[in-house]
Design brief:
Blueprint: E1 15-22, H1 41-50, E2 53-61, E3 82-85, E4 88-91, E5 117-121, H2 144-150, E6 155-161, H3 163-176, E7 180-189, H4 197-208, E8 211-213
The protein binds pyrazine-2-carboxylic acid (VGL) and zinc ion.
Zinc ion is lined by residues 61, 63, 69, 96-97, 122.
Length: 219
C-alpha cells in the first residue's frame, strides 16, 4: 500500500525513496567544535531536495560529556590521534555534539519540516557511532533500518557530513542492510584529516555498491 504523504505547498515529483540527512549540526559547521570546511554550503541543498522525498530522516550525533571519542577523556592523547578503544580503532575528536548543548542542535537554517524522524547516535560513552544504523562495533542498532523497512523503503539517498566518517559509515551500513544507496556528493563535505580521505571514502562507497551522484538533480 502506498503511503499517503503530502508535502507542504509543493506539487512536484515525490521520490519513493528515503533521504537521510547525516549530522547537519552546529558543531560540524564552520566555527563549530568539529568544523568541517564548507559544510554550511550543503544546508541549502538539503532544503532544496528534502521536499521531494516521501520519507526524510535526519541523524544526530548525540554524545554524553564524557564520551570516550573525546580527546579530553584521554590524558596522554590529543585530537586527531588514533587509539584502540575497547578493541576498536578510534580517532580522537574535540568535544562535540554534547547532548543538549547548542553545538548538538541542528543548524538553524535547516528546514526540519519534511523530516519525519530523527535518529540519535553515539550515546554510549564506550563506543562511537559514525553510522546512522549501528555503533562502530555493530553491537547496537539505532532502529533506522527497521523504521525504513516498515515504511516500505528500498532505496535511500544519503547526504551530509562528514563524507569520510558518518556519511561513509551510514552508506556502507545501508548497503549491508540491503538498501539501494545513492550518495548525493554535492550535498556532502568531509573532514579530510589526511589528504585524499574524502576521495578514498567516495571510492570505498562506490566499490561497496553505492551510486555516486555528483549533481543535485532537483531544483
Ligand atoms: C562525525 C566525527 C565524530 C561525523 C561525528 O558526523 O562525521 N565525525 N563524530
Ligand atoms: Zn561524534
Amino acid at each position: 500500500m502506498p503511503l499517503d504523504y503530502t508535502f507542504g505547498g509543493e506539487s512536484g515529483e515525490v521520490i519513493d525513496k528515503a533521504l537521510i540527512l547525516v549530522d547537519l549540526q552546529v558543531d560540524f559547521m564552520p566555527g563549530g567544535a568539529l568544523a568541517v570546511a564548507y559544510a554550511d554550503e550543503v544546508i541549502a541543498i538539503a532544503n532544496r531536495v528534502s521536499k521531494h522525498y516521501k520519507v526524510v530522516v535526519a541523524t544526530q550525533d548525540w554524545h554524553p560529556a564524557d564520551h570516550q571519542s573525546f580527546a579530553s577523556q584521554h590524558a596522554d592523547h590529543g585530537p586527531g590521534e588514533l587509539i584502540d578503544l575497547h578493541g576498536l580503532p578510534q580517532v580522537l575528536w574535540p568535544d562535540h555534539c554534547v547532548q543538549g548543548s547548542p553545538g548538538a542542535a541542528f543548524v538553524e537554517e535547516l528546514d526540519m519540516s519534511p523530516v519525519c524522524a530523527v535518529f540519535r547516535k553515539g550515546m554510549s560513552p564506550e563506543v562511537d557511532s559514525y553510522s546512522g544504523f549501528h555503533d562502530n562495533g555493530h553491537r547496537r542498532s539505532t532502529g533506522l533500518a527497521g523504521y525504513l523497512r516498515e515504511l516500505g523503503i528500498q532505496e535511500v539517498v544519503v547526504m551530509g557530513v562528514a563524507t569520510d566518517y558518518c556519511v561513509k559509515f551510514t552508506v556502507l551500513d545501508a548497503l549491508k542492510e540491503g538498501f539501494g544507496v545513492e550518495l548525493l556528493l554535492a550535498g556532502c563535505r568531509g573532514v579530510e584529516l589526511e589528504d585524499g580521505d574524502v576521495e578514498r571514502a567516495v571510492e570505498e562507497m562506490r566499490v561497496a555498491g553505492a551510486t555516486v551522484r555528483d549533481e543535485t538533480l532537483l531544483s
